[in-house]
């Protein structure tokens, strides 16, 4: 398992469109991808789970990847977050 803390920098946080981009990226990998935010854990491959986490701009999430392609998954997820999730 690998993990990293990442700050959400896009202006609207993980609302519907960015959450969809986030989930689409996560689904490219075989690893289990979750993140912790505000005391709860969310499944990065589920739009409803991501939306339920209520992540806003400036929040820090702890992204965890566990599986055969965990390193690649973590780098890709970090990349999509750092480039603003399409915003």
Strand content: 25-35%
Estimated helix fraction: 25-40%
SSE class: alpha+beta
- How many alpha or pi helices? 3
Radius of gyration: 11 Å
**SSE series:** EHEEHEH
Helix-strand blueprint:
Layout (H helix, E strand, L loop, with lengths): L1 E6 L8 H11 L5 E6 L2 E4 L3 H6 L7 E7 L3 H13 L5
Antiparallel strand pairs: 1-4, 2-3, 2-4
Describe the structure.
By secondary structure, this protein is an alpha+beta fold. It has three helices and four strands, in the order βαββαβα. It has helices at 16-26, 47-52, 70-82, and strands at residues 2-7, 32-37, 40-43, 60-66. It has a four-stranded antiparallel sheet. A hairpin with a 2-residue loop joins strand 2 and strand 3 (40-43). Helix 1 runs antiparallel to helix 3 (70-82). It is globular, with a radius of gyration of 11 Å. The termini are far apart. The model has no long low-confidence stretch (mean pLDDT 94).
Task: Describe what is shown at a glance.
By secondary structure, the protein is of the alpha+beta class. The protein has helices at 16-26, 47-52, 70-82, and strands at residues 2-7, 32-37, 40-43, 60-66. The chain has three helices and four strands.
Which descriptors apply to this entry?
alpha+beta; 87 residues; 4 strands; 3 helices; four-stranded antiparallel β-sheet; globular
């Amino acid at each position: 398992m690998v993990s990293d803390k990442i700050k959400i920098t896009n202006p609207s946080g993980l609302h519907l469109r960015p959450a969809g981009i986030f989930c689409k990226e996560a689904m490219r990998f075989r690893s289990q991808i979750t993140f912790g935010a505000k005391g709860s854990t969310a499944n990065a491959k589920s739009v409803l789970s991501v939306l339920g986490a209520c992540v806003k701009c400036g929040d820090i999430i702890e992204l965890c990847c566990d599986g055969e392609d965990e390193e690649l998954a973590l780098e890709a997820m970090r990349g999509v977050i750092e480039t603003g999730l399409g915003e």
